[in-house]
TrEMBL record:
It comes from Trimeresurus stejnegeri (Chinese green tree viper). It comes from the Eukaryota. The gene is VIM. One of its GO terms (cellular component) is plasma membrane. Keywords: Coiled coil, Intermediate filament. This is Vimentin. The keyword Coiled coil applies. The lineage of its organism: Eukaryota, Metazoa, Chordata, Craniata, Vertebrata.
Amino acid sequence: EVDALKGTNESLERQMREMEDACGAEIANYQDNIARLQEEIQN
């Protein structure tokens, strides 16, 4: 039972890291878009 829970915990931690990576990439894209739009507004 403990081993099964450890496996579940490892799987959930891996999923969380993958989601954090995906969110980080998405945020970076938003920041790039914001910077580009701000440049367009100023020009």
